[in-house]
Amino acid sequence: xxxxxxxxxxxxxxxxxxxxxxxxxxxxxxxxxxxxxxxxxxxxxxxxxxxxxxxxxxxxxxxxxxxxxxxxxxxxxxxxxxxxxxxxxxxxxxxxxxxxxxxxxxxxxxxxxxxxxxxxxxxxxxxxxxxxxxxxxxxxxxxxxxxxxxxxxxxxxxxxxxxxxxxxxxxxxxxxxxxxxxxxxx
Length: 186
Known about the structure:
This protein has 8 helices and 7 strands. The protein has 186 residues and is an alpha/beta fold. It folds into 2 domains: 9-155, Glycogen Phosphorylase B (Rossmann fold); 156-186, no CATH class. The strands form 2 sheets. A 5-stranded parallel β-sheet has the order 5-2-1-6-7, sandwiched between helices. Strand 1, helix 1 (18-33) and strand 2 (37-43) form a beta-alpha-beta unit.
């Protein structure tokens, strides 16, 4: 009777592209508004882009950028952390997309595993992992730390439907891939 349950503490990790980060920012605010403790984790390169953006100067404080400053002022518990994507800041991710993607698939997961391990030991401990659907390594990390694993799709429903029905688009001739030896959506 009257058992007190701790507030859920979710770690949110978007794919490091603006079109993925913005929906995660909205989700973080929404979840925090509903009683969640949020730890928002982005890559150091995205953090660097945000801190050097001229549009963000009004959020800049001594010690770094604080994209959740206004949310915290209203009482929301949103924390902010960065993680290495395995590449130096000077590495041009857009010009070397294939190499960057390979690093995200094969190296980044170790960095994510490390930060999740630290946050599971923090107070209060993280007990929920909300991660971009584009990451293929979420389930093993969630299982390792006994976390609730939630895959968050950031793109419009139409894009999901196209991915899901790509085979039908090919079969019915709506998507012509003649001369292309292999197609990979992921």
